[in-house]
Amino acid sequence: MSADPILDLDLGPRALAVTPEHPFALSPQQVDAINDYVREVRIVWDSVPDDRIPPELKEMVTACDRWDSDTRPLLRDVADGIAEYGQRTAPERYGELEQVLPALGNPLDLDARSRFQGLLSELVETCRRAAEGARQALDSASGFSDSMSRAEQYIRTQLAARKGGEIQSWQDLLWKAVQNNHSDPRAALAATQTIWGAWQSLYTDLLGARETTAHLLDTKVPFLVRVRVDLALTQWRELGEGAWAFRLSIT
Predict the structure, then answer these.
(1) pLDDT value at position 162?
(2) pTM recorded for the entire structure
(3) What is the DSSP letter of 109?
(4) How far apart are CA 74 and CA 72, in angstroms?
(5) Which of 207, 240, 210, 227 is nearest to 91 (CA)?
(6) Nearest Cα residue to 75 out of 148, 153, 149, 145
(7) How far is it, in rounded angstroms, from Cα 238 to Cα 224?
(8) Does pLDDT of 163 surpass 90?
(9) Confidence (pLDDT) at 14
(10) Residue 140 C-alpha from the chain's centroid
(11) Which terminus in the chain has less CB density within 10 A, N or C?
(12) What H or E segment, with its residue span, contains residue 101?
């Protein structure tokens, strides 16, 4: 007699669990540094007529505006999603999953098997939306980082080429802002890459598990699920607390 099929299910937060105190691998201090840099650059731009800003630097102005209007709010939204999943979704849905696991070996317990499939579908949709939101934040962080890097390189090139000649005061101020910059816009990019990858991985695995269980339900064979619910819950709770603290720090 063949053994019952076993479904291995990983419900953990993947790479996000590496640094639960800073779930994005991005600390509030790094966000503050970027905020200060953007603020300093904007002060310079506010003193310069638009027609005197070189075309090569206009995207720096736009990038600074988008950090406040787009990138930083998207990071907050992603933090909200992680906090919500860690503090509410995982405790509630994982607890329900754990309750129905023992009954899955009985092909006659249709209610338990249907409930298990329904819970997987809920988690799949939640993770799909979270991955989509993280992707939007990743695209925004990528655009911000690329624009700032290109503008900084242009500024360095211009200052290196002046060979001791006079330069307009606002350009000196901008150069000082770049020199004094202790932030790294690429940190936001690296962080959102980690977040998107983790959500995408969880979404893909849950989608695969849902498809597998759908087949097993159709064939009406008993099956077992191997999963560490307790470990996954502990990781998500810690991560949810860290994400909420992070979210509050960049409001």
Answers:
(1) 65
(2) 0.86
(3) -
(4) 5
(5) 240
(6) 145
(7) 28
(8) no
(9) 85
(10) 11
(11) N
(12) none
